[in-house]
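Researcher: Structure for this, please.
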Amino acid sequence: MNIYFLKLASLFYFVGTFAYLAYLILLRESVSKWAATAVSIGFASHTLALITRYAEAGHTPVTNLHESLSFFAWMIIGVLLIVNLRYRVKVLGSFLAPIGLVLMLFALALPKEILPLAPVLRSFWHPFHVIFAFLGNAVFTLTFCCGVMYLIQEHQLKSKRLGAIAKRLPPLKVLDDLNYKSLTFGFPLLTLGIITGAIWANYAWGRYWDWDPKETWSLITWFFYAALLHQRLTVGWRGRKAAIMAIVGFLSVLFTFLGVNLLLSGLHTYTNW
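Model: Predicted structure, token format:
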């Protein structure tokens, strides 16, 4: 049943993504509303998919690559909907929705069977760890998109040949402020993800830290964002530098999330991953 809801969510995400991209070209209010509606329905279907999979599996459905990609996509779309309600930056869906859709398509292409839960995952701390970590990553996806939009908009303004894209993107100050605010939300979530992961590791393996590749890259990512936040708060980094660093930071997030599990071996690589 959960796969049915997941496919339905993917269908609406596809429609919403297409509509958001159409809005980027046409700038018609009606197209934006259709996009938001489609993505919202997709998010509701996706939520049902996660609930039913939890009921079928009996545990938090974030234990293998299929489930992790699906959960990450759900978090990203959730962040998109919340930001749209708060800031009304409608064009943001043209950047975030495609990322969520791509993650969903990869999730659907992977084995979807519910396998017995690995003993190490049977922990009270596992749900807290994955929720904080994935929510932090989803917020950093927003930071990444703001950085990309900032660089595009800045290039358009500096070239003094304002194209159609310049009229569609928010002002540089709005993008920089949203970049900063998302950073201040994402960093504490990443911190909580690492802390709860360390507590979970102590229960599972009898130590808080073991320099496992996943732990090491999580710490590298944490230091990177800590440095970026420090520079913004104390040195006053804004604009282009902050945008570039947000993009680089997200690449570190992706490697920590996917690259480590696919390319490196360690305690975080499970047989059903």
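Researcher: Any notable elements?
Model: The radius of gyration is 19 Å. Residues 1-117 form a domain with the Four Helix Bundle (Hemerythrin (Met), subunit A) fold (CATH 1.20.120).
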